[in-house]
Amino acid sequence: MSEPKFLSLDIAGIEAEAGAPAPDRLISGDPQFRSWNVEERDGGLYAGIWESTPGKWRIAYDEWEFCHILSGVSVITEEGGEARTVRAGDSFVLRPGFKGSWEVLETTRKEYVIRL
């Protein structure tokens, strides 16, 4: 039987992977991550839900990522660019080469699609 072609980002029954920023990227706080990877495909395609508690860390993207904020408030600042506040309902793309910081002001949960 072939796998279904429709996949809901339903995390029920999926165990979260725990994480945190690498110590050399941490700027402030003690952010703790949880990720529920719902889809993983050969060639580097991932989709799921990610959540972080408050804190701030440096980010550097080699991959392309679409994000849709489900809850919380974060500030994403590009090196040499402006700070952007994102909250529930906001969608955006971080392109390869993006460098800056991610600061979670209120625990933030997002849906993501990553392409390596």
Automatic annotation (TrEMBL):
It comes from Aquamicrobium terrae. Pfam families: Cupin_3. It comes from the Bacteria. InterPro entries: RmlC-like_jellyroll (IPR014710), RmlC_Cupin_sf (IPR011051), UGlyAH_Cupin_dom (IPR008579). Transmembrane segments: none annotated. PANTHER family: (S)-UREIDOGLYCINE AMINOHYDROLASE CUPIN DOMAIN-CONTAINING PROTEIN, CYTOPLASMIC PROTEIN-RELATED. Residues 40-112 form the (S)-ureidoglycine aminohydrolase cupin domain. This is Cupin superfamily protein.
